[in-house]
Design brief:
This protein is mainly beta. The protein has helices spanning 58-61, 125-131; strands spanning 3-11, 14-19, 23-28, 42-48, 51-56, 72-78, 81-87, 92-97, 109-115, 118-123, 187-189. The strands form two sheets. It has a six-stranded mixed sheet with strand order 4-5-7-6-3-11. The protein has a five-stranded mixed sheet with strand order 8-1-2-10-9.
């Protein structure tokens, strides 16, 4: 049986996962700066090594309870840009089968899979964010103003939430790298967003 690698994590009482090809890294206790007038599913922004990222409340995106004081955030690639989904505990790597054991009905999910004697609902981050009316519902590398950063009011393009970032390929962008096999993903601390004020 063919398996693919996924990052598995809790959100509230559920188990969810993301395929490793969309995961950039895991951030420990992101310090989120709220941004006025953003939707409830946008917690705000965080500064990750000079790059300002939108931070999404994964609980609200899944139409559940909001996550308060998230312990971790998973930085994901959407439409050629990065955004962060908060999670309840440290994610781990797992092997996931190619076919779901059952479909899932929540927008932004891609089926439920058996993983180590438990059920994990896989997420499609672009569909999850788009289902909340944020980001872009079209193809990858969508037009300016349609990436995850466009969820933050006043954004001029993907990733340009605050601090004048020019979008994909901005100075300080974090290159993707391999996820270590067989254990938790290395996590990096994130500082408060530099809002220029």
């Amino acid at each position: 049986m063919t398996h693919r690698r996924a990052l598995v994590f809790p959100v509230d009482d559920g188990a969810f996962g993301l395929t490793v090809d969309v995961v950039r890294e895991v951030v420990v206790a992101p310090r989120v700066t709220p941004v006025p007038t953003t939707p409830a599913s946008v917690l705000g922004v965080c500064n990750l090594r000079g790059v300002v990222l939108p931070v999404f409340d994964t609980g609200r995106l899944l139409r559940g309870a909001p996550l308060r004081d998230p312990a971790f955030a998973v930085v994901v690639r959407c439409w050629g840009d990065d955004g962060a989904l908060v999670v309840s505990a440290l994610p781990t790597l797992a092997a996931v089968g190619e076919q779901p054991v059952q479909p899932s009905e929540t927008p932004g999910t891609a089926g439920t899979y058996a993983v180590d004697e438990r059920l994990v609902t896989m997420l499609d981050p672009e569909a999850l964010i788009a289902a909340a009316g944020l980001g872009h519902a079209g193809a990858a590398d969508g037009p300016a103003g349609t990436g995850p950063g466009s969820a933050v009011a006043g954004s001029a393009g993907p990733g340009s939430a605050v601090a004048g970032s020019a979008g994909p390929g901005s100075a300080g962008a974090v290159p993707g790298g391999p996820v270590p096999a067989g254990g938790p993903v290395g996590a990096a601390p994130a500082g408060p967003a530099d809002t220029g004020g």
